[in-house]
Amino acid sequence: MKTRLDKYERAIERSADSYLPVKRTERGKIEGMLDKIRKTRNINIRISEAVLEQLKRRSQEEGIPYQTLISSILHRFVTDRLVDAKSIQRSMQLLSSTR
After folding, report:
1. Which candidate, 94, 76, 74, places its Cα nearest to that of 86?
2. How far apart are CA 78 and CA 82, in angstroms?
3. First to last CA, the chain
4. How far apart (Å, rounded) are the C-alpha atoms in residues 80 and 83?
5. Is the pLDDT of residue 87 over 90?
6. For the chain, what is the domain count?
7. Angle formed by the axes of helices 66-78 and 49-62, to 10°?
8. DSSP 8-state class, residue 18
9. What pLDDT, on the 0 to 100 scale, is given for residue 98?
10. Is 43 left (phi over 0), alpha (psi -120 to 50) or beta?
11. Where do runs of H (alpha helix) occur along the chain?
């Protein structure tokens, strides 16, 4: 059975010759970063039942496990990518009122 590549995979195949090998020292740095990213730790937190139920409900809507949702929220918070919808609405109102 022959595997069929999609458009993205074909583009990778076409450009494979343009990739350069990574130096050993650079590869070590990259692997170290990846190892750090892949490491996980279990933690225990106290959270109200009401909030936990809301998280579980929201995770079902998103189609992901609730612990994955919590981890995603925490990751977005520490990387400054967690967005507050009310703040965005206020910003949009301010921008539209200045026009």
Report:
1. 94
2. 8
3. 61
4. 8
5. no
6. 1
7. 100
8. G
9. 76
10. beta
11. 7-15, 24-38, 49-62, 66-78, 85-97
In this prediction, residue 97 has a pLDDT band, given cuts at 50, 70 and 90, of confident
| Structure token digits, residue 15 | 């450009």
DSSP-based helix, strand, coil % in the chain, nearest 5: 70, 0, 30
- Taking only the tens place, the pLDDT of each residue in 20-74 is 888 999 999 999 989 988 888 899 999 999 999 999 999 999 999 999 999 999 9
Q: What was the pLDDT predicted at 1?
A: 67
Cα–Cα distance, 82 to 87 (Å, whole number): 11
Task: Report which secondary-structure segment, H or E, holds 62.
Answer: helix 49-62
One-letter amino acid for residue 52 of the chain: L
In a domain, 2, yes or no: no
Residue range of the domain that includes 55: 7-97
DSSP state of 93: H
Q: How far apart are CA 11 and CA 75, in angstroms?
A: 31
